[in-house]
Each structure stands twice: as structure tokens, then as C-alpha cells.
Amino acid sequence: MTDIGYFLSCEQYGPKELIEQARMAEAAGFTRLWISDHFHPWNSEQGQSPFVWGVLGALSEVTSLPVTTAVTCPTIRIHPAILAQAVATAAVQLDNRFVFGVGSGEALNEHVLGDLWPSPGVRLEMLEEAIEVIRLLHGGNEISHHGKHYEVQEARIYTLPSETVPIYVSGFGPQAAELAGRIGDGFCTVTPDKESIDTFRSSGGGSKPVQAGTKVCWDTDPDRALETAHRLWSNDALPGQLAQILPRPRDFESVAGLVPKADIADTITCNADPDAHLSQLREYVDAGVDEIYVQQIGPDMHGFFDAYRDHILPALS
Q1: What is the pTM of this model?
Q2: Calpha distance 230→142 (Å, rounded)
Q3: Is there a catalytic annotation at residue 154?
């Protein structure tokens, strides 16, 4: 059975709004939470970027649901040794209901300290070493690490959860999916891409969990819903590697015109028709996703959660 979770967007909502959405999601019957980790929003219309590690602490006090970061880049903006400490604390606060989702990142978030933005192959190499550092520190011993990309000297984390924190790796191509299968405890994606999921599973992922996020714009006015989705999230349909290499929100705003509304309509359900929402989610089920996380783009949170509680979640149970 596929679990249906809710996707908390740190690009679009402030910390107090995210906490309230988590409460509403649990009350509506969602069984898990995803939360994004960004320094910048994709564009100024989204307009938020709370520090995810602060929000996670607050979430631990208001929800009993498992939480996954979707996803953190542990390679450039924050050293993996510091993230190892943050992850351990979050897992303690959430009583071992925390999954650390990681990925190779985007220049949008990772350029802010002036570091060079590496090529895709180097980013994956850095990601693999960062995960190694984090797992070493989560072993509880004092460690030193002298690697190609990272140095750690005589470090030990004292506040550790009673269970090992799972690390899920995201991937949007065969090289990343293969890496996720080889070193990840699970796989994160945002598309119903059966080929990538199969690559993950055949590369060592086996029956490990596959998580996927998806967006909808629940609104009784379909035209208004599409306008909202296109205005806020046209970046989801940018071609090529633009999403990985553009450094500033205003750069994403400059290229938003490359994305026609029809492309957004093809990937984001923009209406209040339960059957249309179910159809979008079933694409992920059919692709082999174990956990689907739904993000509401539009402002009608009560309508969204009521509809999912009454019609959509029961139909998928």
C-alpha cells in the first residue's frame, strides 16, 4: 500500500504556516511529512526561506508523523560534520521518526558563500563523501576524516538517537539513481519516472523505500488555479539543467517565460475535481513509488485538506 504524505514547502510558506499545515495534514489523515531545505526560494513570488532545522524542532512538538528533508544538499553551504549533528538532534527530537533526504543541490542555494559550483559528476562525488562523513559521525565515536573534499579532525557527536538515521538519496538521472541505489537507504524523486526507480532498485536499492513529491493546486476555479501554479512554480518545468545552474531567484523569474502554461497544466492538477487529483497520484503508484508527498500550491488550505480527508485519501487506502 502506498503511503500518502504532505509536502511542506519552505520556499512558499513561513515557519508558523508550515507548523499549522503539519497539524492540518495529520488531522486530515496524511501519514508522513516532507519538508524542503532552501536558502532561497525559486522566485520572489514564492517569497520564503525559513531555516529548516529550526522548523524541524518545532514540528517535533506538534506532530507524531515521520518527517523527511526533501532534500538537503550536505556538500557546500553547510559542512557535512555540522549537518551530522543537526540530523542527530532532529532524530532525537522526533523520536526516531526522522529521515535525512539528501541530494547534490542547486546553485540557487549553494553559491551563497562564494564557492564554485561544480560539474554534476563532481557534485555526486562530493555527495557520496559527505554521506560517508555523516555516517561515521553517527557511529558515536571520535573520528578524523581526511578525504578528497572534506576534512574532519577529532570530532564526536554526543547527542545521538537510539536508532540509526536513514539517509535517502535523490536522483533525476541514471547516474544519480545508480548512486542512490548503491549507497542510499531509500530514494527520493519528484516525478513518476519508472525508469529511474528501476535503476535505483537494480543498482542495490532492491525493496528499499521510494519517496516522491508532487504538487497540486486545489481551487474551485481551474483558471485561477493554473494561473497560481504557473506564477509560483513555473521553475518545475524549466528545460535542461537551468534549475541546477541558475544562481538567483530573479534569474528564475527572467526565464519563467520559457515555460508555457500548458506545460504546468500537464504536470500539476489545477482544479477541485477529486478524480483528477486521484489520477495524478495514481501515476506515482503505477511507477512504483512507496510514499507520495502532496504539496498544495493554492491558498485554499481548508478546501484542500477537507477534500483529501473526505475523498482522495480514502480512495487510495
Answers
A1: 0.97
A2: 49
A3: no
